[in-house]
Amino acid sequence: MSDCPCGSLLPYEECCGVLHNGETAPTAEALMRSRFAAFALGRDDYLLASWHPSTRPAAHDLDPDVVWRRLQIVDTVAGGPDDAEGIVEFRASYRDADGAGLLHERSRFVRVDGRWAYLDGATTLTP
């Protein structure tokens, strides 16, 4: 078993793997972590399924040349097990053909039929 890409230090199978296989994320942060792991593992299917229906793109194709390396949670506002909405601010390190970069986003999450969904986010990319 290898560590989960989300940085939790738990085995993938016990962390984001259970969410990728259909369990419900208990918090907005857990969904954010599972989405990062999906980026790192090339799981477009999960990314689309965890997107809010009103903002979900028709298709999403991950760039195979981008390697997602590290996730840092900067801040959370609400998004707990009993909340209807939440915010997760994070930094995600990556490497592509141009070198190392950093994506900084403040993401909004809401519940849809009892499940957390990614609504949108304000993003800054630093190449």
UniProtKB/TrEMBL annotation:
Database matches in InterPro entries: NTF2-like_dom_sf, YchJ-like, YchJ-like_M
Xref: Pfam families: YchJ_M-like (PF17775)
Highest taxon listed in the record's lineage: Bacteria
SUPFAM superfamilies in the cross-refs: NTF2-like
Location of the YchJ-like middle NTF2-like domain: 27-121
Family membership: Belongs to the UPF0225 family.
PANTHER family linked to this entry: ADENYLATE CYCLASE-ASSOCIATED CAP C-TERMINAL DOMAIN-CONTAINING PROTEIN, UPF0225 PROTEIN SCO1677
Name of the protein: UPF0225 protein GCM10025869_23690
Originating organism: Homoserinibacter gongjuensis
Phylogenetic placement of the source organism: Bacteria, Bacillati, Actinomycetota, Actinomycetes, Micrococcales
